[in-house]
Amino acid sequence: MFNQLNITETARQLYIHRNSLLYRIKKVQRILLLDLKDSDELLKIQFALKIYHMLYQKDYTH
């Protein structure tokens, strides 16, 4: 799901440079005041994104 936190592989799959991905991760950490290297905080983000997706996903089947 998260490429086992492999930055290089994640950047490759997103078609962006590794340094661009690191910059964006640091920016998110600064905005959210979270350390994404901490597994508990990373889990919080993962749950929040899953809940957001469940609540606001668009259903294109109708």
Features:
3 helices; mainly alpha; 66% helix; 62 residues
Task: Give a verbal description of the structure.
This protein has 62 residues and is mainly α. The protein is built from three helices and no strands. α1 packs across α2.
Point out poorly predicted stretches: none
Number of separate strands: 0
Main sheet record: none
How many helical stretches? 3
Integer average pLDDT: 87
For the record, give the distance between the C-alpha atoms at the N and C termini, rounded to a whole number: 28 Å
Structural class: mainly alpha
Portion in helices: 55-70%
- String of helices and strands: HHH
- Which shape, going by the Cα principal axes? globular
Q: Roughly what fraction of the amino acids lie in strands? A: under 5%
SSE inventory with pairings:
Elements: H1 7-14, H2 18-32, H3 39-56
Helix pairs in contact: 1-2
Summed up:
This protein is mainly alpha-helical and 62 residues long. Helices cover 66% and strands 0% of the residues. It is globular and about 30 Å long.
